[in-house]
Design brief:
The chain is built from ten helices and six strands.
């Protein structure tokens, strides 16, 4: 079972996400709480994935993200937002969020996105705009090295990574060993001078590698 914690100050959002995800046979929402309860519940329940509202009146979602990322074994955190151009999104991605979902995400896709997160895949709302991508990359110096550093195979893997595939799924798609894919992903992150898969995916977006796939 994939254990999920939903953090949002709106009870309607919490309840809706809880019902949708609990209907999936392999996902359990272990708690749905407000922002002030988030850290305590993560420490108590040890969820695999946290869906965290980026804007909350009682506590800043970015502050919660920062504290979660500082834990010895942090959960995977994806941000929930109402607007795809939310200026907080870029900051969250720089801080290590595994992606973001709009609160009006199609219920049919929500469980799939949680599974992707749990498998270390990349989840970005299909409404990701150039504003978000540019905002994420703008403050980075000199991160986001040139795509030209990558080999043809690494570019191929980068595109699949940006499409949200896990290492196992990439391995199956390309008929490679999972260990080989892990080595390639590590090389990609090093060459692009980024710290995670989301950052690499956004670098691919910025370089135009995904243009023909949108």
């Amino acid at each position: 079972m994939i254990r999920v914690l939903v953090v949002d100050d709106e009870a309607l959002i919490r309840t809706g996400f809880q019902h949708i995800l609990n209907a999936a046979g392999d996902i359990e929402v272990v708690a749905a709480v407000s922002g002030r309860q988030a850290l305590a519940e993560v420490g108590r329940l040890h969820p695999d994935v946290v869906l965290l509202d980026i804007r909350m009146p009682d506590v800043d979602g970015l502050t919660v993200l920062e504290r979660l990322r500082a834990l010895p074994s942090p959960p995977i955190v994806a941000m929930l937002t109402t607007f795809d151009t939310d200026e907080y999104v870029a900051a969250a991605l720089r801080m290590g969020a595994a992606g973001f979902l709009l609160k009006d995400t199609d219920p049919e896709h929500l469980a799939l996105q949680v599974r992707t997160l749990a498998a270390d895949g990349v989840v970005l709302s299909p409404k990701v705009t150039s504003t978000v991508v540019d905002g994420y990359l703008a403050g980075r110096t000199p991160e986001g090295g040139p795509i030209e550093r990558l080999s043809a195979r690494e570019r191929e893997i980068l595109v699949l990574l940006a499409d949200g595939l896990s290492n196992g799924e990439i391995a199956a798609r390309l008929y490679l060993g999972v260990g080989t894919v892990k080595d390639h992903v590590s090389a990609i992150l090093t060459k692009l001078e980024v710290s995670g898969r989301v950052q690499a995916a956004l670098a691919a977006e910025r370089a135009g590698l995904l243009r023909d796939r949108r």
